[in-house]
Specification:
By secondary structure, this protein is α+β, with helices and mostly antiparallel strands. The chain has two domains: about 45 residues, no CATH class; about 100 residues, Immunoglobulin-like. A hairpin with a 7-residue loop joins β5 and β6. The longest helix is centred in the N-terminal third of the chain and has 10 residues. It is elongated, with a radius of gyration of 19 Å. About 25% of the residues are buried. This is Phosphoinositide phospholipase C. InterPro entries: C2_dom (IPR000008), C2_domain_sf (IPR035892), PI-PLC_fam (IPR001192), PLC-like_Pdiesterase_TIM-brl (IPR017946), PLipase_C_Pinositol-sp_Y (IPR001711).
Length: about 180
Amino acid sequence: MRLDSSNYDPMLGWAHGAQMVAHNMQGHAKFLWIMKGMYRANGGCGYVKKPDFLLRVGDPNNRVFNPSAPPPVQKFLRVTVYLGEGWSREFRHTNFDQYSPPDFFVKVAIAGVPADEVRKQTRAIVDDWLPVWDESFEFSLRVPELAVLRIEALEYNTTGVPDFGSQTCLPISELRNGI
């Protein structure tokens, strides 16, 4: 039950097989990005067919998918964050730090069923508009059909709240090997 008017997590409905036809999103934040990322799987048209395991009708054992008890690991995903480029063209040079170049780091996360959700991050590259991380992360996925890869670039801030740089969300089912 919800009492506020913030964005809700669309994964909750998707993992239980709900076909949502409308999203009432209140602002640009994580859950809106996840929703847009999931819909990239069908060209961004706003509809993605349910995975086959959620469409099973007449299962001989009457099994229903339980997102809290997902199957064993189905797939491994390795993500390498190489570098960040283009911020110096998009932001004023004093946008992040008043007297020095920004200190960027990248958060890489999986949105999906609870067992798949994990967050990792690169180290912060200090005072550089062209940061090079060359860091790899591996994720084990139990329900890759419902998983979305979240990538968010942030600027380290000594106040504790990082400044937003950029983000993207991509459906795991659409990812291919390579860069």
